[in-house]
Design brief:
Layout: H1 26-29, E1 69-75, H2 78-89, H3 96-113, E2 118-121, H4 126-132, H5 136-148, E3 157-159, H6 171-178, E4 182-184, E5 195-202, H7 206-217, E6 223-230
Parallel strand pairs: 1-6, 2-5, 5-6
Antiparallel strand pairs: 3-4
Bound molecules: zinc ion (2 copies).
One zinc ion binds near residues 42 and 43.
Length: about 230
């Protein structure tokens, strides 16, 4: 990689950053906002200040998710969204080390503290995956799986509807849009295993919840969600 790419940060273009750093320099990395407590017990939304009791955020109070809780490694600020966007849509695979390391740094210790059985990446619709030539969630799941010693299973659920882009929709429209987007694959058979559902970004949780529902149909027991970034 260093032969092809000069060891220069691909964000600021001035400081040194090599392949192992995902070509993001130390100065740019200071803009990362790690998600640490306090955050919503359900959806992982961080908030300012001291919260002493167990807390569900306003977003979660009238929503029923099909996963037990969701956590994210970093806030989806401009830096992180820029990196994820270039990683997914512009072939910026050199950013993968940065994203995978952030995920492993946060999710690794948390997953080790509880017993989980496998990781399932949120599937892309096959047309989209063919266009993009990879599923970013699957690549990141494999990195986390190797680090955490958990198998990755991509054969349990599939995306049956190619949903329109979600960014312009409100949360209710999103929920409706994604509700029937996933299905358990024929023959998928779990027996109450504890599943870590993995995606790059979590915003309302509607997409991940719809996928978790399909996973439950496939026989999953407990389900948690990990994402690299958390959108507001
Ligand atoms: Zn930089
Ligand atoms: Zn919440």
């Amino acid at each position: 990689m260093n032969f092809v790419y000069p060891p220069v940060c691909q964000i600021c273009g001035s400081e040194r950053a090599d392949a192992a750093q995902g070509f993001v320099c130390d100065t740019c990395r200071r803009k990362v906002r790690w998600i640490v407590p306090p955050y919503c017990e359900k959806c992982g939304q961080p908030f300012e200040g001291e919260i002493t009791a167990t807390f569900d955020c306003a977003n979660c109070q009238d929503v029923k998710f099909h996963f037990r809780f969701a956590r994210s490694a970093m806030e989806a600020n401009d830096l992180v969204l820029d990196i994820i966007h270039r990683y997914k849509y512009s072939g910026g695979l050199w950013f993968e080390n940065f994203l995978a390391d952030a995920l492993i740094h946060q999710a690794g210790p948390a997953l080790a503290a509880e017993k989980w059985d496998l990781i399932v990446p949120i599937p892309l619709h096959h047309v989209k995956e063919r266009e993009r030539q990879f599923n970013q969630a699957e690549r990141l799941a494999r990195r986390l799986g190797r680090a955490a010693g958990l198998p990755v299973n991509v054969h349990l659920v599939k995306r049956v509807k190619s949903t329109a882009t979600q960014t312009l929709l409100g949360r209710r429209e999103r929920a409706r849009n994604v509700q029937a987007a996933f299905a358990a694959r024929p023959g998928a058979k779990l027996n109450g295993e504890k599943v870590v559902l993995l995606d790059d970004v979590l915003t309302t949780g509607a997409t991940t919840s719809a996928c978790a529902k399909a996973l439950r149909k496939a026989g999953a027991g407990d389900i948690c969600v990990w994402t690299v970034a958390r959108g507001a």
